[in-house]
What we know:
Number of helices: 9
Helix content: over 70%
Radius of gyration: 17 Å
Shape: globular
Number of domains: 1
Distance between the termini: 18 Å
Structural class: mainly alpha
Oligomer: single chain
Amino acid sequence: MDFLTALGQLRDPMNWVLYAPPAVLVLALSSLLAGWLKLKKGIRTNYTRKVFHIMNFTYAAIIYLVGSTVAVVIYGGFGLGAMVVCYLLKDGNILLEGIAREQDEPHRRLYVIVPFAATAIAGILDNSFFTRFAVVGYLVSGWGDAAGEPVGVRWGKHRYNVPSMAGVKCTRSVEGSLGVFVTSVMGAFIALQISRVPVLPSIPIALAAAGVATLVEAFSSHGLDNFTVQMSATITAAAVAMAGGL
Length: 246
């Protein structure tokens, strides 16, 4: 189902009954869990933010499998609303603190809402033009991109500067990029099974999608990599699959 078809199906109230409550629940639980880990357990935001990241991208892949694009559109709409709410919250609020990084000051709220908006735009484009492989972008961005920051924080030795919005200083590491690649391969392979691609062809497609996404992530502007990684993974998977006659 492409994006325009999904928009038409939003008029069906049954879709809202089925998909709105779990979307709100997942967004609330993931925000609360990330905030609890930060405020109560003292875990760094670099890690708690990725708990939120992984839970929500994984949910997008699951709900896509269950309810196709219309379910993802409903979820994305609630997600954007949730990020606007977080943007307006005061410092110290549990819903904000688990996903707003201190190193993004004085623009930490900007780096809450922009990545989610970037994710939504990439999701719209992927579902409009590469519908079958959109889920590859979900899991590569959700798992692979999520792995880069905590791996880099923990083991990153070889660091390099990357561009960012609003002048916030940002670095990434070779070790973090390796984490992106390894996790992206796994995410892409699982996504290809969701897309009903045979197992053996899925291996080179997953490697290609992960490789391109890793290179793109390494040089993407801080805050916009949810867009660039998601798009590059989906486009690469679609192109390699098409070249292989799939």
